[in-house]
Every structure is written in C-alpha cells, then in structure tokens.
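ugh ok so i messed up the first submission bc i forgot one of the chains. this is the corrected input, ALL of the components this time, i swear. 647 residues overall. if the numbers dont match what u have on ur side tell me asap before i send this to the collaborators (the ones from the other lab, u know who)
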Amino acid sequence: MSKEITITLPDGSQKQAPVGISGLEIANMIGAGLAKAAVAFSVNGEQRDLSDVVSQDADISIFTIESDEGLEIMRHTVAAQVLARAIKNLYPKAKLAIGPTIENGFYYDFLSDERVSIDDLPKIEKEMEKIVSEKSVITKTIHSKKEAIKSFADAKEDYKVKIIEDSEQEDNFQLYNQGDTGFIDLCRGPHLPSLEKVGAFKLTKIAGAYWKGDSQNEMLSRIYGTAWKNEKDLKKYLTLLEEAEKRDHRKLAKEMDLFHLQEEAPGMVFWHAKGWSIYVALQNYIRNKQIANGYKEINTPLVVDRKLWEASGHWDKYRENMFITEIDEEHANEKRVNALKPMNCPCHVQVYNQGLKSYKDLPVRLAEFGSCHRYEASGTMHGLMRVRGFTQDDGHIFCTEDQIESETADFISLLSEIYTELGFESFDIKLSTRPETRVGSDEVWDKAETALENAIKKLDIPYTVEAGDGAFYGPKLDFVLTDAIGREWQCGTFQADFNLPDRLDAEYIGEDGAKHQPVMMHRAILGSFERFIGILIENYSGKLPLWLAPIQLSILTVTEEANEFAMTLKEKFNAINLRVELDDRNEKIGYKIREHSNAKVPLMAVIGKEEMAAGTVSIRNLRENETNTYSIDEAVELLSNDSSPPN
RNA sequence: GCUCAUAUAGCUCAGCGGUAGAGCACUUGCUUGGUAAGUAAGAGGUCACCGGUUCAAGUCCGGUUAUGAGCUCCA
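and heres the new structure output, hopefully the right one now
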C-alpha cells in the first residue's frame, strides 16, 4: 500500500505528497506566499475547501483571489457568510433561502416579516463590515441528511430544510461555521478559509424574487451586491455602471428629442421627427440590402380575422399575448372578432399561397417591415427595448429541405455584413435543437439541424449548441451581438418551421408533378426596429454615425453679419440631401457649440467673418472635437460621400 | 402578472398637514461675441387620476393608471 500520492499541477509539474494532504498543505509545498494567498483549490477540476484532503493521485490547482475562480469563491462567501449573517443579525426572524454568485457579484434571497427597503442597505452594509472585521475562521462539518435537517429545523430555517429534503443526496451535507459565532450555513462550497480574505464589496439594489423562480411561489426579498478583490476594482466597476447609465437610451432620447411614451398607449412609441429620421434611414438601408439579396418586399394587414389565427394555431397558443378587436354589429352585418397581428408569418403564407408555385420558383424570399402588436405583461416594458407595438425586419423563405443549408449560409453572411456595417464587431451564434414536444418527423429534424450546423461550420464561425431549446416547429439559430461596453443583445434569428406550411396549406409542384410542402424559414436581422435603435443609441452613446444622425450638420453663426452667408451654405448642403440645421440665434459661439454637442449633432460648421471673407467652411467633429477648414466645394464633396449609408 | 419604489413647471429635482420653490430651458431687453453655459427682467403648475381622514391634504390613508429596479414571461 502506497503512502504517497502524485499530484499534478497546472503547469504539468508533479510532486509526491503523503496521502491525506490538505489543500493548504499542498499550497505550502509550492510556496509560503501561495499558501498565504490561497482561497481554495480544485481536485481534478472540482472545487474544494483548502481544509479538504486529497487521498489519491490528482490534478491540483490552487486558487487565489487573483483568479476568476478565486474571485467567485470570495463573492460566494460574502453572500453566504457575510450578507446572510448580517441579515440574521439585523432581522433575527428572517428565513434564509439561497445566496449564489452572479456575474460581477452575488445576491441573497430571504423572507422577512419586517419590510426591508433600499434605505436599509447602508445599515446592512455596515453590519457586514463589522462581521468581516472580526476575521472569523470558516470551518465546515459534514452531516447526514437527517442531521442536517435537524440542525436547520432547530434554527427555524425552513428554506434550508426544504432544500435538504428536496435533495437526492443522502449524506455529505456541508455545514459551514463562522468562528464561534454560532452562525451556520448549508453550502456546496467552497468558501474562503477566513473572512480576512474578503475584498471590497457594496450592496447595490433590493428587489423581489420568487422562491425557486416560480411565479406560483411566494415572493422573497433579494439583496444584490457586488464584490471585488480590492477597492480599486470595485471603484472601476461602479464607474462602469455609471457609464452604462449615461448611455441609457431613454435618457439620451429625451435629450436628443427622439421619441416619447405616454400613459394612453403603454409600450407604443410616439416617434418625434428626429427619432423617426433614424428609423427611416435604418429602414432604407435594410430595404436596399434585402432587395440586393433576393428578397421581395411585401406588406400585409394589421388587423386579421380570428379564423386565420385559429388556422395558424396562434389563437390556441398565443392568444393571451394578442390584442383582440371587435367590429360593432351596428356597423357590420355580422360581429367579427379580429386580432392585431402579433407576427407576420401567417400573412406571408397567404401571399405565398396566391398562385401555384413550382419547384423552379423556390426559394421564395418574402420580406416585410411588419408592424406587430403583442400584449406584453405590464412589468416587462422597458423603453424601446421591450414594447407592445413594434416593427420587425421580418422575412420568410419558402424552400425545399435541400435548400436550407445554402439559404442559411446566405442569411448568415448578409447578417454578418449588416452587423459589421452598423458598428458591431462580433456576434455569437446559438444553435437550438429539437425539444421533447415537437412536430415533424425525426428525419426532417435530422436534415434541418444538420443543414443549419453545416452552414455555420462551412463559414467557420464559432457557435454553441443549446440542445432541446428549439421551438416545437423546428430548429433555430439565434444571433447575439456584443456592444461597445461588452453587453450582449440577441437580435437576429433564423428558424426552420415544419408546422405552419402544413397548417396553412403551403405547397409547390415538384419535378415529379406532385404536390409537396415547402419548409418555411422565419428570419430577422435587427429583430425589431424599436429595440435595435435603442441598442444603437446605447452602443454609440447617442453619437450615431453620420448617415444615421437625425441632424448631420449644424451651421452655427458667430455673428449676425454671417447669417446670409450661412444661409447660402445651408442651401448648398440641402442640395446634396444632407440633414442640416442653421443656428443663427443671437448667442455666443461657445453656447451654440455646447448646445449642439449635447444634442449629439456629429458635425458643426462655425461660420463667422473669417469664413465669409475666405469663402471657406470650418467643420468641427463631435467625436474627435477637432476642427478642419475646407473650401466650400471640398466640404460639399466630402460630406456627400461621408453621409451616405454603407454598402 | 408579482414585489418594492416613484409620479410637483418643458427638463432635473427640492418641499412632506396651514392657500407652490430652485437650477436649466422658454419670452423680452442689453450684449455682435471665434470653438462646451454673457447678462438682466418676465412668464410658466387642477402638485398623475379617483375616493377617504382632517377646520385645513402635493404633504396622511386606500384604490387606479403609468414609470423604474428586479422576478416571472418572451411559442
């Protein structure tokens, strides 16, 4: 029997160690500095507490707070040991639920009779600091299910008891103790060996959350926090949050006079002239791209009889999200129930179904800027990002199963081109495959999933597979883009549909002279214009590229004497379809520059006696804050090139 | 839809039982000023809506609607 084991470190080096060596002892073997900095370790990829022992040959990594793993462990300890105990200290009757880590931080859910509000966070934070300053050592004990349940039942921690009862595990329940404070917590671990290693943290918000995430269950209080290895990182993160707040499209849109929302039409946008100008520019850009890529643009009714929605299946499956309208019997021969379309697909099938289609006609690519209405739950609305009335850059491709692969490839390359031209450098693809309940034969699913996957592989784009996440009617691709501050937005989609062509009797005549059913591909690149414009505003902090900016150039006069010259310039720029505004108010030039800068006008032409005398234009660029002087002809030439959409 | 919070001038906000306030914006003077706020005066409000308590309600209480942060949802 060997008394030694071999441990392999991440760099491949190996060390001999006695059986039963602890994580901390291994760290010490490597170096005293590491042992001091260590917060946890992993055995064959599984995270463990430093006090845990190793009794077999294993791959070992030691984590410090510098690593992502170490940071996450620290956040976990702040939640489960520090925040949880602070809650119990301040609200002894509170019942603790769960306290996991999330991106950049953690939260803790608990039930409390006493109301806890945002104003209580400083108090809780102070209690947390007190707990941390005690520098308690964290130890754990292992218990059977029965013992664990008894411990938490004694502590009146109902949720912990439920968690243990619902667990399939019979023993090895880990209870963490904090020094001799008497505080215990159930946890998978690992935790910091001591609260001494806690970094800088801050509680950020408080909100309600359902127990186990089920809206049937009771609502718990949830406190969110963030934690970092030191004050500097914490500060950096808080600054980033402030930056994100400054980019909020709702705030910028008010400053830029783009749109508003009001009570009488919740979730529906009142576009102002400047916002609509962005919308129109974006729509024309997409329109041209689609026509150049073989799509035919169509337009279908907003209000459609329930019969079509019954046929398509929406009346059954989607009704609670639909706006229903009735025609008064006084005004019609019969009472008719209609719905505002929540999707364009059934209408597109109607267009497809007009006239007999041959296999030679396929693929048929129909596109529509389809205005849709969906009754979203009241709490889900958010500026332009989540609305009840919106317009999709929708399209449906009717094709044969054999054409799915090439249509997928064409679609991805179009989408990629458009995202790049709109200023987004990268996007991810998610492939969602067959769910348990579905329509269509397994052979058809095999074929479609393979076709989608092959297309991505051939284009050599990385993707992830979300097994079982597809819609019941077919597999799909989702496209997630990353914005300037690293946030991800799911926008584009490409979905196969074996269901709707069947329900709505779409068919074509094949080479064999018989009727066949086409596959329908639903696709969108922006998703919704409303939401995408919101994303663009936030991505650019309102400083949109010249071709999208509502006002592209403001002409600012320095003195009244230059007004006439400025007016002739405005006419010259108008003639090349530039969106120009003349500011000849009786104000100082610094004042005008400030105002137009705040309105995010990308270019400003400052016109005074000098320009008048020389017949030149001085153009100041908002993004770079730089000024260049051009002759009038140069300026006209330059701007007529720079202001057109990418192609 | 659920929990909590919020709703006062065009905007951002203060006022929290005793007949409405600031800054910016707006209007009108003065100022003609060269690259991010010149100056003075003036005008501007059913204090979201409905009900209750009170001698008296932006102010306290209840309800409604909308908005915000989360949760749930987003075939």
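quick check: Residues 243 and 356 of chain A are 56 Å apart (CA to CA). that seems consistent at least. The longest strand of chain A covers residues 200-210.
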